[in-house]
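dumping the sequnces here before i forget
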Amino acid sequence: MSPSDTDKPARGLTRRQAVKLAAAAAGLAAVGGLAATSLWPDKPRAEVFVAKAAGYDADLAGVVRRGLAELGVKPAEIAGKQVLVKPNLVEPHAGAGHINVHPLMVRAVAEAFLALGAGAVVVGEGAGHRRDAYLVLEESGLAEVLAEDRLAFYDLNSGPVARRPNAGGFSKLGDLWLPGRLLAADIVVSLAKMKTHHWAGVTLTMKNLFGVMPGVVYGWPKNVLHFAGIEPSILDINATVRPDFAIIDGIVGMDGDGPIMGDPVAAGVVVMGRSAVAVDATACRVMGIDPAKVGYLQTADGRLGTIRAARIEQRGESPAAVRRDFALLDYVPAQRNLRLEP
Amino acid sequence: MTGTVLQTHYDALIRRAAPDGSFAVAEGAGSRPDATAWAAMALFAANLAPELVAAARAVLAAAQSPDGRVALLPERPEAAWPTALALLAWLPDPARAENVSRAAAWLMAHPGSHWPKNVEEQAVIGHDTSLRGWNWIDGTHSWVEPTALAMLALGAMAAPPAEALAEAARLLVDRQLPDGGWNYGNTRVFRNTLLPVPESTGHALAALAGRAATGEVAPSLAYLQGPQCAVPTPLAAAWRAFGLGGWGLAGENEAALCLAALERQSRYGPYDTPQLAQCLAAAVSRGRFATLIGGPP
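..and the predicted 3d for all of it:
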């Protein structure tokens, strides 16, 4: 990026302004210096499964099991493996269930992988704004489920960390510091909530991986990532972590001023696949959002996966059939002009 | 002095001491400066294992860079937030005066990134970005917890930097939420006022004790005293005690909540060392943070 690039407009703000805001409020920073080439040898294709689920009292484990089967997952692929499920628990507040992945969705995913013979399923999260991980578990309702199901939880913010080369090169973050617990897992599942986001447009399974970045190295909030630019950081983290599965709790999502202060949306869907890029693109279509208009998804296309409908084989429900337009705020630059044409 | 129940948890902390004087960040894990500093403070507050406290301070001194900072990892010098913790751990020991002085100088030279907020930014974020406090990671913006910890450390020095502390106090007051309490450090984003959390509120109130009028923080004191903050999890309980303790409002109930949080390890598994040590220190001191750093009990 040349020095002059720093003053080019980025969604209505100059890049310099955007970096300042990122510093101050988990901000908005545009993608810059995108030199990374495709991590795929050929043009990528992907399968994504979409299921209707009217409520959290549905047979969610059955939904996830069916999804894994539709994705061609066999027991031999999972048997004996250590699975780390990373739910989105950005900033729980008691009684605000639509903010985070529902605890019953975490249970369903754990049950599905254990049913396929996983050696162990653990849950890990590094909440972006909260230091007391146990209070996060209590307020999100997840503590009860973890205790009942005897699932171990690891605070990814505070445990041992290790350095790994940045496989993306989209930002100037350099090497990434990742939690030892994440690196020890055989299978990583990014389990996200279906939400709009006031800095990134949408937060789905790719943005969810901000939560694997340890706070002891990146802060609370993870301000280093904001200074480096949210969108390039999302891309770098996904290129480096490369989650094995991406699952979205869209049963009740959030629109408007997400990821915390938005409104609940009963979208009634679960979206899942092996490619976070394709899963997020599909979820966007369900939300009435054009993935090609979401900066980091557009950049990821062809480099980290595909967002193109023609290259995504949809299993289960058609995204168009379950489309439920999420409210977008005209005063939020990152949400302007994202609407998917009918 | 510690009671029998607290002693059991202190024993668990002491078992995490490594032969070189550092403390493991968790059972079976490697050492880290924040774990070592909090362990030293918790042991000092309870007047336990003085040889371990001295060894921990020595390890922190060995980890101090020539420029004065104490980084989380040698390979990640920007993550310098343990500097304030090391300073706190050294404060009671006159032999560490030189370490204290260099750490303070580094903190004074490395406030959080700051700038005057323009009109466009005014519409997006609520707080005054021009005020200087301290950050988690060098080069980034100021946030509540690192600002509060640096204030507690610098404010306890023999010659506190009055001007910097006054500006940091203004920063914390500016980041206070309209209905009371603090979160990590944002008040408003776009059109929504954000929500408070117990641990950040405790940090801010502990740091503002003696630096703000009661009337300036009355809604926050009420929030921290309220039922929504009476939760037996380690950091919330510890900083509820320290936050109220700074204002003379902590007592048996706050210590009992810390004890309940310590007992909750039967539900959650063992806490990491920083959380264990903070909860122990809050319980044994009954919320009087000064006890951790050699101040009057």
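The first strand of chain A starts at residue 9 and ends at 10.
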